Amino acid sequence: MRSWMLAVAAILCVAGGTFAAESETAAPVEQPRVEVAFVLDTTGSMGGLIAGAKEKIWHIANQIVLGKPTPEVRMGLVPYRDKGDEYVTKVFDLTDNIDQVYTDLMAFQAQGGGDTPENVNQAMHDAVNKLTWSDDAKTLKIIYLVGDCPPHNEYTDVPTYDKLATAAIGKGINVNTILCGGNEQAGQVWREIAGLADGHFLAIAQDGGVKQIPTPYDKELSELNSKLMDTAVVYGNRGVREKQGKLNVAAKSYSAPAAASRASFAAEAEAVAANDLIDDLRKNRAELKDMKEDALPENMQKMTPEEREKYVAEMQAVRDKLNEQIREISGKRNEFIKEKLAEDKGTKDAFDVQVLEAIKAQAAKKGISYE
Fold it and tell me: Distance (Å, rounded) from C-alpha 78 to C-alpha 40?
């Protein structure tokens, strides 16, 4: 057993608690993985949906991680427009750094467009071929194609949507399509894509129908999120530490609903932030004794090996207590939201609800269950 784990046990025992370490001979539980890429039309007509998605991305991540066994969640983004616009596509690769995904999404603005078709084919091509999807057949891999206009099939830069949908399912990637509004031509294409890529076709209002459900638990969870971020121990080269440090600071200023969902996600996933030393030590992704001094945060660089182990153990103990509080309050929050959704029938057709319902159905095929 690693020395830092022993240190955690010692601290908890001194505090009057107990610490039950897993048996070294016990077989580790294999953690499933869910990879989700949102391919979003970001032209002017999609302003309402994009605004709603910004508010709900942490809620979606939080709900995904509630699967049993608890999955590792990776997300990616492919915004698209058309030739002649500011960009045709941008590719934000799949990552478990959801703070980065949130930051990237917040920068999106709905602009451009004008003619009805958009460059759907290029967007699908980039999502299927430029994102770093897992090669593991057990991984649940999903693309959500979200838009309101049909593709420019006269463009010959890349294959057409039907060939790309076939290529996606050939890689084990399901494509769920979400039609915003009532464009009949787009609806026909969206249905065809979903059928070819073993996905779900979903139709929602033009603005996404996203509704924020405030709860009496948001403020407390937001405060706990800030306290949880205070336990983050970012490591890596200076550039990594500075970039992640800024994301961690920003995470403490999210809106209360987003911060509440973020706290719940972190507690369930037992992943406070990316490039976090404590998480990576616990998950055997790093060894403290092997760390180079300049890869450690500045306050740890000045410590002796024994002081570093004690510091990590203390942070882990604080984090464990916070996670316990967050899980308890999050359970009440989830029940509150569930009751409100049951009362408001229209909310069930909203973007975030439709996304989660499709994931739940497809996750079952990979052995991940949801209540």
Answer: 6
Contact 11, 319 (CB under 8 A): no
Name every residue whose Cβ is closer than 8 Å to that of residue 259 and which is 6 or more positions away in sequence. 218, 221, 222, 225, 226, 251, 252
* Same domain (yes/no): 316, 191: no
148 domain-assigned: yes
The count of structural domains within the chain is 2
**176-235 residue pLDDT tens:** 999 999 899 999 999 999 999 999 999 988 888 888 889 999 999 999 999 999 999 999
Domain extent, residue 312, equals: 213-342
User: What is the per-residue pLDDT across 41-99, written as a single tens digit (0 to 9) for each?
Assistant: 999 989 988 988 888 999 999 999 999 999 999 999 999 999 999 999 999 999 999 99
Cβ-Cβ contacts under 8 Å for 114 (sequence gap 6 or more)? 43, 44
Q: Are residues 219 and 354 in the same domain?
A: no
Q: Which of 88, 83, 202 is nearest to 142 (CA)?
A: 202
Same domain, 172 and 307: no
